[in-house]
Amino acid sequence: MSPALLIALRFLGARKRAMLMSLTGIVFGVAFFVITQAQTAGFEAYFIKTILGVNGMVRIEDRIQSTRAMTATEGSSFAIAVEGSVKYIPGVQHAKAVTDALKGFPEVTAASPVIRGNATLIANFREYDTKPYGIDLGTFLNVSDLETQIIDGSMKAFGESPYALIVGSRIAKRMNLQVGDSVLLDGAGEPQRFRVAAVFETGIDQVDRERVYLHLPAIRTLLNKPTGASFIQLNLLDPELAPALAPRIQEALGHSTMAWQEREKTWLQVFSVLRISSALTISTIIFISGLGMFNTLVMIVVDKTREIAILRSMGYTRADISRIFMLQGGIVVALGVTLGCAAAALGTYTLSHIPIRIRGIFASDHFVVLWDPWHYVAAAVIATVVVLIASYFPSRRAARLEPGAVIRGSSS
Questions:
Q1: Which of 205, 202, 227 shows the shortest CA–CA distance to 217?
Q2: Whole-angstrom distance, CA of residue 325 vs CA of residue 306
Q3: Distance between CA 194 and CA 34 in Å, rounded?
Q4: Residues 242-253: pLDDT tens digits?
Q5: What is the rounded distance in angstroms from the CA atom of residue 322 to the CA atom of residue 399?
Q6: Lowest mean pLDDT: which of 58-72, 112-126, 162-176, 212-226?
Q7: Which residues pair with 63 in a beta bridge?
Q8: Are 83 and 91 in contact (CB under 8 A)?
Q9: Strand 126-135 and strand 211-215: pairing?
């Protein structure tokens, strides 16, 4: 052990209680910082997973038709085309052609046409307004998590019957529906009879209380839509590719294309604000601990003035004295970060096993956390910067002490 480190440890022992208070603050600050970040990031990641599993990474919807106006200067027969307003034609009329064209984009791994509409569900002498989604089961399972969202019944039963129906959990509860029940759907055409094959739950309130799934041929008859699709839902190699890919698809295919980041921008901003707010709030604990560290080191400088003078008279330079006090801060922050990270890991693990029923924007029966090493790195960096800054100014004060002035002052 170097003499400087040994002296730093002896100086720390002179103010054990104050140092322990600062150390405790750093431990709790680091632990709470990591836990809150793991929780907010976990909920955000789970929300994104749920949204992607329901609405896809990219959606291709209305066809874009650009209107052009011909203008000519006065007295001249020369005319030029001027870009005018943009007209949106609802739906994807040539869904197969668009789907085939998507094969030219290597980022796209799957595409599925969907027909969306409105219909009244009639069962048990009651009526309920729903939003039926007509899907091609073989391709839709590649762009959604519908198969994992089934909580009653089976996807096999849905696939085997052309007039099978999958209903949201809120609809099933409100209409008192069970798997195997017969219901009527009244859309734009004649009412049709379907049988409930399964019940799904996404945890997203609006989806679970409005949406029902049926096969594409059945919904074409129900809504009197013999051709086309309402939109095409895509799956990509990486969800983060969506913002850059959507404009390229829109330009190439002439259809309005929206990435999931744009579609869910409001919720993503909410999670971002919560994460930043919690980080700033918890960082105040570390900041207050830094102030305590600053006060403790200042008191050590005052108490150890004669010892510092003796060290200087023995040949210790100002840099050596400064290093001793910086080492004190380094020892405290190293212990604080180590213990804080251990407490954070234990706290995060415990939090992830606390039961809590969450429904509304996703479905979860316990706290959702994200194990991210960068949370620990961020907490360690914040604690280190705060404590080293708090140690720097007392170390400068100690280094400036002149042994002659201290001896003269003590003798007088």
A1: 227
A2: 15
A3: 50
A4: 999 999 999 999
A5: 5
A6: 58-72
A7: 89, 255
A8: no
A9: parallel
